[in-house]
Amino acid sequence: QDNSFEQFIINYCNEKLQQIFIELTLKEEQEEYIREGIEWTHIEYFNNAIICDLIENNQTGILAMLDEECLRPGTVTDDTFLEKLNQVCATHQHFESRMSKCSRFLNDTSLPHSCFRIQHYAGKVMYQVEGFVDKNNDLLYRDLSQAMWKANHSLIKALFPEGNPAKINLKRPPTAGSQFKASVATLMKNLQDKNPNYIRCIKPNEKKAADIFNEALVCHQIRYLGLLENVRVRRAGYAFRQAYEPCLERYKMLCKQTWPHWRGPARAGVEVLFNELRIPEEEFSFGRSKIFIRNPRTLFKLEDLRKQRLEDLATLIEKIYRGWKCRTRFLLMKRCQIVIASWYRRYA
Fold first, then answer.
1. Angle of CA points 225, 227, 231, to nearest 5°
2. Could you give all domains of the chain from N- to C-terminal order, each with its CATH number?
3. Which CB contacts under 8 angstroms, 24+ apart, belong to 190-198?
4. Which residue(s) pair with 1 in the sheet?
5. pLDDT tens figures, 41-80
6. pLDDT: is 310 or 192 the higher one?
7. What is the pLDDT of residue 334?
8. Where is each Myosin motor domain found (predicted)?
9. Which residues, in sequence order, are bridge partners of residue 95?
10. CB contact set of 67 (below 8 Å; sequence gap of 6+)
């Protein structure tokens, strides 16, 4: 119920994770259909980039204004920080404060004067402004950092790189907010360089007990995790997509015209393959570089046919090997019989 600076930066990280989730799923998937020339009707979704900008913008972001308050000379308090927020963010559609002179919130008794509220992607969160300035200031003394850096323990030494005498900086140390922002930026870069997989966890009840399902709580999480938009995009789109070359390589054994070798373009081979298997036309689409399959059942059918074909090929290989082995043994015995017979006739 009481949220301060710690919860604020945690929610900021959640916003960035939600943003990259949107970028890599909803936005990227719909853009891929357009790139591949697939007929597609755009599905609208909420992009939380506007909330991330409210927090991390270098000029008008909340973290930037908090750093400015912490570093500027003169009397600095949490109230002056809130006043600055009210001046800069008053018109922002996701920022709410009773002191912002905005008529929408002047009579909002659920919002105390010493608080501000942000409408996050997962709902509105109210933050107590008390303690923001003190918690944002990094009060770790330089001599303590230097002492920790001189420790023999490698982990402790790694946790205090600013204590390295070669990197001593007489400037004021960076604030906690700016350090956290830099860490989040590094995390986002690492995620974008990888191929992440997502597991969305739904909490069924607040009691952490088994066999209790709170429908309202679950619906709230599904709505604000963006799962509804994701499901809509998935259902309207294609469940599976693959480049023509690996697709042909994997399933070419299912068609006599493509097995064992296909001499033409990979797309033409995939077209011949799908026509031979008589897959309904509404179940797949040909993109510029990929084959798109709409229903998972079609993919399961292909995998079942491939599995059966592999078993048939294994049986064929086994049959040919056994025949070769038996014939080799027969020819060897035949040659032995001829040699024995010739020697026997010589001495008979």
1. 170
2. 5-138+174-193 (1.20.58.530), 240-347 (3.30.70.1590)
3. 191/20, 192/20, 196/20, 196/24, 198/21, 198/25
4. none
5. 777 777 788 899 999 888 888 898 888 888 777 777 888 8
6. 310
7. 93
8. 1-307
9. 118
10. 136, 175, 177, 178
299 vs 282: CA distance, rounded Å: 14
